[in-house]
Each structure stands twice: as C-alpha cells, then as structure tokens.
Amino acid sequence: MSHTERAFTVTRREFVVPADPAYGANHAEISKAWTSATRSYREAHQLPADAPLPDNAIAFWPAAAEIVISYETEKPASPSADDVAVLLATHDHRGGRISLPYAHLAAAVQEEYRATARTVIDALGLGRP
Question: Are 108 and 49 in contact (CB under 8 A)?
Fold first, then answer.
C-alpha cells in the first residue's frame, strides 16, 4: 500500500475588535467587524450576497483585550522556485541537454534555472494568494 502526501497553504483573515477587560466590546464595533468578515468570506469563496454561510465558516475568538472574528481559506501549496528549478534541470539532464544533475551545476547556472522557475510559477499563476 502506498501513501499520498498533500500540502496546503492556509490563509487566516482576522477582524479584530478591541475589548476593554472591564466592560467588553461595543456591539456596534462587533457588528461592523462581523459584516466585514462575512463580506470578505463571500468574496474569498465567490459566494453571492444572498447565499447562506456554512455554520462553521466564521469563528469568534475572545481574548483579554480583543475579540477576533476570523475565517480561513486554503489552497494547494505553491511549489518553490527551487523545487521547480530542480525539476527543470532534471528534465534537461535526462533529455541530454545538460551533462550534470542540478546539484552539481555551477551556482550561476542554478540561479538561471531558479529565474526560469520563477517565470514559470508566475506564468501559471501558482504564486498568487
């Protein structure tokens, strides 16, 4: 039996409302933050304004001096420029276009592969949040 490895990039959006330890937070400020959070959540998940939110979409986190309203989004992790550079060089090495594997290439040649890798990542939109 084999296994699968997955990597994800998680972005946590927080909307912070100051709270006085003795008196708590103002309901109007919590309402504004909640509205901002729901609007942002809908935008991040491309939901229409009238679509219901999942019950666990947005969380409230009380702390001593603030209330945090937050949600998270996740997407597959973006490959690093180094990973893509190694992949490109391996492809060139196996195809006979270069004689050495990536680890044995001169630093300047490795940098050229990293620059090409960054171009590939940008062109494919893999580095965007």
Answer: no
